[in-house]
Amino acid sequence: MSPAPRSTHSGGPADPPGAGASVDGWSEVRRLVPEVLGSLVRRYGHFDACEDAVQEALLAASAQWPTEGRPRSPKAWLLTVARRRLTDHLRSEESRRRREEQGAVEPATPAGPSGDDTLTLLFLCCHPSLSAPSQLALTLRAVAGLTTAEIARAFLVPEATMAQRISRAKQRIKATGATFRLPPEPERTDRLQVVLHVLYLLFNEGYTATSGPGLLRPDLTAEAIRLARGLLRLVPDDGEVAGLLALMLLTDARRPARTDADGALVPLAEQDRGSWDHDAIAEGVALVTGSLASKPVGPYQLQAAIAAVHDEAPRAADTDWPQILALYGLLERVAPSPMVTLNRAVAIAMVQGPEAGLDLVATVDVDSHHVASVRAHLLEMQGDLDAARAAYRHAARLTTSIPERRHLVSRASRLT
Amino acid sequence: MKYMLLIYGNEENWEALPPDEFAEIVRRTDALNQELFESGELVGAYGVGDQLTAKMVRVDEGVVAVTDGPYAEAKEHLGSFTIVDCESLDRALEIAAQNPASRYSGIEVRPLMHEANPDM
To answer: Contact B120/A208, CB-based, under 8 Å?
Structure first.
């Protein structure tokens, strides 16, 4: 089953289920998390303990507000409760802290606009010393304001596992000696790349979860779009930030059409383009067009440009494949990978015929379901149905995605 | 990405180990599981009951038949399994190699199927 199609390109995401879901406008409350956390860390240091305190305040709010009513200033309420939790905690830890005076994330910056805090938090949560799953989890908690239980549900792991992952991630940041300030300029560009990658993974995680337990999972796609939007406000001049947001919007716009009523995958060429989200497409196209003016053009901008070409074709047959081929050529130069080569093989097949595509696929020396399914598709185009069927079946055996396996098996059996 | 690490074994081989060595294996397995729990990679680790306690359920035309089994005559049986959620296949293989059982019987590593549609 697919989630009810809904627009995520404007306004706030819907409330996630679980903690806080019964509080009106909970997503507005979650938006306060980076501000509250930022002001605590600037004043007290100890990112680790402050982050726990804000999480506790958030849980307290979700328990108390539905019965006691929402306070007049939710931000002041959260700040007061979090500060109380934090000072209790610090007091009880005082003697130990005195012995271990090292390593804490110390207050380093004077009070600045709260947007800077959000950006600083993003850089800290996406610290390069962390594994990707840890970066995602910590960003969702400290910047997006999700609870540990919600994050655990999103990744289909036990809450204890997620709690450990987050706590380990914070210890690791502490051990690196990172401070609560924006990385200095030469480093900042590289660090921004990591932040973008984390948001990209977050989007993917949400976008690919379409069924089953997905119905109970928080909408990570909406979170990723919201965070990317916020990041663009803070870093308006970076073409790749705009490119990433555009890529998300242009991809998410097709969500209503990418699965059928039974939850089965619908390939791009067969999707009902009328059900695409045309407002999101318009916004994504405008963003990527504007960003292409800034040089150099990066991989997110190029991927967004490719998505825009697809999204702007009224029918699959109208797709401007020569344009897509040229863009994949550029992408392969900027960010070469087997996946990019495979996508270029599909584009080359659409422009020059399946043989040219198959020749390019043959240069990708990896036995993955991606390679096998592209080969199968091109063999089918070529009319070699026996070989296509075998390649679809091979791809089906290699994938670990249940919907994709179903799709590949049905492609294979359609050819008999 | 989630992986299941399956540890098969032969009861006789395990019983033939000196008690100290067996205790050491248990200690090191517990330590590994604790480490994986702390890193946030452990989804679950379970030993399964002895083969003698295994049951096989079959439904044939609506009739439920429960027998002992499965494969009572097999030499190797599932002894325990661990589910990890880690960054890559390489990491899952590394975790398997750290498990002391990998030195006695092989550890089968299988990716878990998921509901994601990776078509972006």
So the answer is: yes
- The number of residues in chain B equals 120
Could you tell me which chain B residue has the CA closest to the CA of A268? B119
Partners of residue A161 in chain B, C-beta under 8 Å = 37, 40-43, 85
Structural domains for chain B: 2-111 (3.30.70.1060)
- Chain A CB contacts of B118 below 8 Å: 204, 208, 399, 401, 404
**Where is average pLDDT lowest: A102-116, A147-161, A303-317, B14-28?**
A102-116
**ipTM exceeds 0.85:** no
SS3 call for A359: helix
> In this complex, is the C-beta atom of B79 within 8 Å of any C-beta atom belonging to chain A?
no
Q: Tell me the C-alpha distance between A320 and A325, whole Å.
A: 9
- What is the count of residue pairs from A and B with beta carbons less than 8 Å apart? 83
Q: pLDDT category, A9, cuts 50, 70, 90?
A: very low
How far, CA to CA in Å, does B99 sit from each of A391, B22, B108?
36, 13, 12
What local confidence, expressed as pLDDT, does residue B104 receive?
87
Domain edges within chain A: 240-264+271-313, 320-416
* Measured CA angle at A399 (ends A398, A405), to 5 deg: 110
Q: What is the pLDDT of residue A205?
A: 82
pLDDT tens digits, residue range A72-95? 999 999 999 999 999 999 888 776
Beta carbons of A214 and A3 less than 8 angstroms apart:
yes
Query: A155, A401, A409: which to substitute to probe chain B, counting the most B Cβ within 10 Å?
Result: A401
Q: Checking phi first, is residue A299 left (phi over 0); if not, alpha (psi -120 to 50) or beta?
A: alpha
List pLDDT tens digits, range B77-90. 899 999 999 989 99
- CATH class of the region A320-416: mainly alpha
Which residue of chain A has the CA closest to B112? A400
User: What is the average pLDDT score of chain A?
Assistant: 87
Q: Does B117 touch chain A if contact means CB atoms closer than 8 Å?
A: yes
